[in-house]
Amino acid sequence: MEKFSRMVYVARRFSYQKLYDTLEPVFHEHGWREAERRGSENILVISLDQAGDNVIMSAFVRELRRNFPKARIAMLVRSYLADLWRLCPYINELLVFEPGLEENALDFLQRATALCREKLWPLHFDRCYMPKWGDEKGEFRTLAYLSGAGKRIGYSNRNYEVYVPGLQNDSGGEELLTEHLVSPPELLHEVERMLYMLQYEGFKCPETRTECWLGTGDIISAREMLAPFLSAGREQKLLALGIGAGDRGRCYPVAQYLDALRELRKDDWQAVVVGGPGEHEEGAWLASQSAGRIIDLTGKTSLRELAAVISLCDLYLGNDTGAMHMAAALEVPIVAVFREALSCDGLYEGRIRGLASEYARFRPWQAENICLRPQEPLGECAQEVCYGFCKHGEKPHCITQVKSEEVAAAVRELWQKRGGKTVR
Q: Using one digit for the tens of pLDDT, what is the confidence trace for 73-115?
């Protein structure tokens, strides 16, 4: 690693091929490329994406354990997501790493090498999986290679060509993988794509449900936070309201959510606003407009406490975000608002959906749901194809066309479908 770092410093350029050429002889010399070294395997799963992607990945990890019952499985995640995985019954080791913080390749190499020396190399991995499809960054593949795993399995840059001939994903580091998968075009949801990585190797995946693992303490904390609505004689219909998202373009305006909640007051609904610290200002504003009918918990819960709060609610209402995927894993009925217009489903005979469609790839999985979407793209968004079919990632745009009365009507419809009974 010191030799390669000097090469990077002198050349002022990071080369994945030179990384491979420099380290591969060393891995061979130390026996890291020997096949079938032991009866059970050590497996690393890299999941350095955000909360929603990690909830979705729960199905992959469960089926991985099913097919490798004796393996030692380690998860590598961002530090803030460790709470989400800590109670997972399918893993043996939980490791953390922060991607994208380094200013240059040498800083990244220094941090990655420290992680490998202290945590990864002592575990001597046989396999490494990167189940996330799409824009895998080169640094993730670099980590997979530096882990020393003999088999390094990820998705190929050629996956985009399945939908748009000639279109390349320019993520670097593909030469560091031993298996480059191209998923079938009919697998649209990310849960299915992740499981395909195991199916490709001939493994069976009989269950596709996602999971969220909670402890008794999480439920107790959630009940304490919801005490104003759960106290004796005051049990109400509870709606978990998820107002955040990975970018602002996926956020339905909170003023329109408030209009929907005011309509739902006629049916005696109470709302619990959930989200991270970044949503606290809007959550506090919603609570201030409610005369005690809205509790703001944005930024006040751990990830597992957030999931526990959602589990105690009768419905989830909100954006396409990690909280929505938690609700799906907990089988809480969902009303979700997407920015992607209905008219976009037929573009290029529907082939583009597997690549650009947020709805097709990340819609609520397994839980009963109603998804609301605008009829047409708004303004200039109708002129070109882009991810999510809305050009505005910095502010709500196409999503604003969904009417608040449609939101309230969807909540009522889903409530009637489940028989009008509370879950508590």
A: 999 999 999 999 999 999 999 999 998 766 678 888 889 999 9
| 2-199, CATH topology level | Rossmann fold (3.40.50)
- Which CATH number applies to 216-417: 3.40.50.1100, 3.30.70.270, 3.40.50.2000, 3.40.50.720? 3.40.50.2000
β-bridge partners, 152: 128
Q: How many CB atoms lie within 10 A of CB 25?
A: 10
State how far Cα 93 lies from the chain centre. 20
**What is the Cα–Cα distance from 363 to 351, expressed in whole angstroms?**
17
- Entry pTM: 0.94
What does the alpha-carbon distance between residue 309 and residue 271 come to, in Å, rounded to a whole number? Answer: 11
Give the pLDDT band (50/70/90) at residue 6. Answer: confident
